[in-house]
Amino acid sequence: MARETVADMPEWCTVEVAMSVLGGKWKMLIVKYLLDGACRFGALQRALPGITHRMLSRQLRELEADGIVARRAYAQVPPKVEYSLTPIGAQLCGVSSALEEWGGRYRRAASAAAPAAGRAAGGAPEPGGTSGD
């Protein structure tokens, strides 16, 4: 199934445009690694250990089609291909940093709330509480 083009999306919904271009598990992680500079396919795959060869290829192609990533093939043997961010892709630096900060805050808050949720759901009794027997 083909992705909806940016031109076909409602003009008032810019979040939908951003999520169409950057949504999914891997795209922002790829962008995050490319913010450090050009990278070869193998280096990206090592940086993202859970991604398959096929998925990385697909995500890079989509990012390239959307103008976020540039692909440069060198005429040499063995073939060498590097990926880098385009100028518009490099503008995602602030977005990446903000998401990383938010993710850290969310993880800490969720970790702190998890023990309390376990106690409320009948888990371990609170310190100083009674067992009711």
Automatic annotation (TrEMBL):
<keyword id="KW-0238">DNA-binding</keyword>
<dbReference type="Pfam" id="PF01638">
    <property type="entry name" value="HxlR"/>
</dbReference>
<dbReference type="InterPro" id="IPR036388">
    <property type="entry name" value="WH-like_DNA-bd_sf"/>
</dbReference>
<keyword id="KW-0804">Transcription</keyword>
<feature type="compositionally biased region" description="Low complexity">
    <location>
        <begin position="114"/>
        <end position="124"/>
    </location>
</feature>
<protein>
    <submittedName>
        <fullName>HxlR family transcriptional regulator</fullName>
    </submittedName>
</protein>
<dbReference type="InterPro" id="IPR011991">
    <property type="entry name" value="ArsR-like_HTH"/>
</dbReference>
<dbReference type="GO" id="GO:0003677">
    <property type="term" value="F:DNA binding"/>
</dbReference>
<dbReference type="InterPro" id="IPR036390">
    <property type="entry name" value="WH_DNA-bd_sf"/>
</dbReference>
<feature type="domain" description="HTH hxlR-type">
    <location>
        <begin position="13"/>
        <end position="111"/>
    </location>
</feature>
<dbReference type="InterPro" id="IPR002577">
    <property type="entry name" value="HTH_HxlR"/>
</dbReference>
<keyword id="KW-0805">Transcription regulation</keyword>
<feature type="region of interest" description="Disordered">
    <location>
        <begin position="114"/>
        <end position="133"/>
    </location>
</feature>
